[in-house]
Structures are given as C-alpha cells and as structure tokens.
Design brief:
Blueprint: H1 2-40, H2 46-64, H3 66-74, H4 86-110, H5 116-131, H6 139-172, H7 177-204, H8 214-238, H9 245-248, H10 252-277, H11 279-293, H12 308-323, H13 325-333, H14 340-360, H15 366-379, H16 388-420
C-alpha cells in the first residue's frame, strides 16, 4: 500500500507508457488480421491498407472497446486475492504490459503472427501465480478463454467455408458469373455492414452517451446496411468490365467486383479487430489507473478513464503504420492463395466471429480466428490448397507465446518489486 501512496502518479505514468507500447505491438502484429487478406489479394496496396486500418482500428478501439476490457481487467484473476496487497496487482499489471508488448514487437520484427491475447493473458497469469499463488487465478474463466482459442478458429473456419461455398453456388458455378456477382455482392455488403452495426450500436456506443433499445439498434443497423448495399450496387453497376480480362485470368471481372467488397470487409475487420484487441492494452492499464485513483481499493467494477481508450487506439495505429508489413505478408500470402472472393469469405467470417466475441466480452485471439477462416476457405478447394509448412510454423509460434509472456512478466515483476521497494 505504501508503494501506491508514495509512487501513485509515477505508477500510472509508467503503466500508460507500457500500455502504449503494448498497443504499439498489437498494431504491429495484429494488423495482419485486419489487412493481410486485402493486401494478399491485391485489393488494396499496403499504403491504402494502412490508411483504412488507421481510421477503423481507432474507431473500433474507441467506440466498441469497452465491453471486452472489463473481462481482461476483472475476469482472468481473482481481484479479491489482492485485496490486502493492491500494490502487487499494480506492479503485476505494469509488468504484464511491458512483457506482452516486448514479445509482440519482437515477433513483429521477425514476421511471426502471434496472438496478442495469448501474450497478455499469459503474462497476467504468470505474475499472479508468483505474487499470490495459483489460487489468484480464476482457472475456470481461464479455461473458458483457452477453450475459445479452439472454438473460435473452428467457428470462423466453418463460417468462411460455407460463405465461400455460397459464393461458388450463387456466382462462380452459374452460366453468367459476372451478372450474378453484380446481383449478389450488394447482399454480401449488406450482411457485412449489419454484423458490424448491430454490435457497435447495441454494445459499443453506451460509454459515449448513445443509448438505444434493442429494437432501435436493429432498425438503425438495418437502415445503415441497406444504405451501404445500395451505394455498393450503384458503384458496381457504374464500373467498366472488359471481357478480354477473363481470357487472361478466368473470372477476372467477377474478382474485380469482389475486390470492391474486399474494401468493405477490410473496414469491417479493422473495426472488429480494434474493438476486441484494444482490451489487451488498456485492460491492465485501466486496472492500474483505477486502483491508484482509489488509493489502493480494488473495485469489482471500475470506470475507464477518458484518456485510456484513445491512448490504446493511437498506439495501435502507430504500431501498424511503422511495423505492420512483415506480418501482413505472412498472413496474406503464406497460408493459401487468396483471390478477392476467397479473401472476402475469410474476412467476413473473422469479422463476424470477433465482433460477436467483443460484444459478449470474451477476449478471443483474432490471429487464430483469421487463420481458421483462411484455412476454411482453403479447405473449400481441398487440403492441397493449404501451405501446411507455414501453418505448422504459425501454430508453433502460438504455443511459444503463452509461456513467453508468463516468463517475461515474472522477471519484470521481480525487477519492479525490487525497484519500488
């Protein structure tokens, strides 16, 4: 308790710095989850992807990042176990931010698409076990989150598989693929917009003062999505399509239509990613800020300070702009050959899975969700379409991440404890 009383402001500033570093790592590594498929299908250039992601990652983090933050802050460890020693919780959360952020930046440097959720949860569990003991960890909730790391890739893979099968049946395997693409792609735009709007309006905007009933939220979501679909229909009809392009690459004009849709799904995925993964940076930071502000009292429900969500959003944006290219290349081109239609199916499936998880407060791994979706698209063409060597390396990096976060957090926790004591 003396540490909080004597160093309260310093602790919050250090936590803010390390929280920003963590957000930087999230942007550098997980931007591939939002933009890798768009760049891999050549629907967007890297520069365009970064600009889109900067806008929608920040919007997702700021507008819809509050729900999942509460789970990270209060769900992984038993806060009651730290009631008599809140200083240990503060130092542990700071250590977790630095440990996870450092690992993410290292992984991004080498182009490894690791899980930011694995990183921070491993770090939090690590310091909790050495500071209080195994009883400080709510293993039932931890088990549920670990289970979600298996369920969500499977769920996104199934959604992506059937989404791409629907595209094949409605468009590619017909007598007039181009006209059918013009007919059905606006519907897919409507679906994409609806997924994002429903959760954003219903769950994400309450902390910025917009409170809507379920009925009002559904009506507004449908209205916005219809507008998106109509705008897409007008834009698609206005484009020029050269039949000669199909002689160079089969279905080139159909893929051109899906290239337009990829921009919509890229925006959706960036928003979904920002809403979910910002919690990995600001959850521990908000815990530190609330404990210090209350003089050491650990509240079961603590409001998020106004400056924390923007800090996380800005950190994500800077990280993806400065270090995002390597991981983006790994995900966009390494797992399977992606075309705009395949990339759309993978991105919509991932966005739907991530936004649903964010709305329910479950911190899933967007990395695993996207890889599951890309695998689902690949499997729709047979297992030979998958690069199993790349998948093996990705899975190995996932396995390493959890203990790496824990070991780094434990070491940093002891250093911080010695310094402030």
């Amino acid at each position: 308790m003396d540490i909080i009383a004597n160093y309260g402001t310093t602790l919050v500033l250090v936590a803010a710095l390390f929280g920003f570093l963590m957000a930087w790592g999230i942007g550098a590594n997980d931007v591939a989850n939002a933009m890798g498929t768009s760049v891999g299908t050549k629907s967007l250039t890297i520069r365009q992807a970064i600009i889109i992601a900067m806008i929608f990652e920040f919007a997702g983090a700021y507008l819809a990042g509050g729900e999942v933050t509460a789970t990270i802050r209060n769900g992984i460890i038993d806060s009651n176990a730290f009631a008599d020693s809140p200083d240990l919780l503060v130092l542990g959360m700071i250590a977790s931010l630095l440990a996870a952020g450092a690992w993410l930046i290292l992984a991004s440097y080498f182009g490894w698409p690791v899980s930011t959720t694995h990183s921070i949860i491993g770090a939090i569990v690590g310091f909790a076990v050495v500071s209080i003991g195994p009883e400080a960890v709510q293993w039932s909730k931890f088990g549920g989150i670990v289970g979600s790391w298996v369920v969500t890739p499977a769920l996104s893979g199934v959604i992506a598989y059937f989404m791409f099968i629907s595209v094949q049946k409605l468009i590619f395997n017909t007598d007039d693929p181009l006209n059918n693409a013009k007919r059905y792609v606006p519907f897919y735009m409507f679906l994409t917009s609806l997924v994002i709007c429903l959760v954003t309006i219903k769950k994400g905007l309450t902390h910025v003062g917009l409170h809507l009933t379920n009925g009002e939220g559904v009506l507004l979501s449908v209205a916005i999505s219809i507008a998106v679909a109509i705008a897409g229909w007008v834009y698609i009809r206005g484009q020029k399509y050269n039949p000669q392009d199909d002689s160079k690459m089969h279905f080139a004009n159909v893929e051109k239509v899906f290239g337009i849709l990829m921009v919509i799904t890229a925006c959706a995925m960036a928003f979904a990613h920002g809403s979910n993964d910002v919690a990995n940076a600001i959850g521990p930071l908000s815990a530190v800020a609330s404990i210090v502000a209350s003089g050491g009292e650990i509240a079961s429900q603590a409001s998020i300070a106004w400056w924390i969500l923007p800090l996380g959003g800005i950190g994500i944006v800077i990280g993806l702009a400065t270090m995002g290219e390597k991981v983006m290349a790994t995900v966009g081109t390494g797992i399977t050959h992606l075309t705009p239609s395949r990339g759309f199916a993978a991105q919509l499936a991932t966005a739907a899975t991530v936004v649903i998880a964010s709305g329910t407060g479950l911190p899933i791994s967007t990395t695993q969700t996207l890889v599951g979706a890309v695998m689902g698209v690949g499997l729709a063409r047979g297992i030979a379409a998958l690069n199993l060597g790349v998948l093996r390396n990705i899975v190995v990096s996932w396995v390493i991440t959890l203990p790496a976060g824990a070991i780094l957090a434990i070491a940093i926790f002891y250093v911080l404890q010695a310094f402030f004591s």
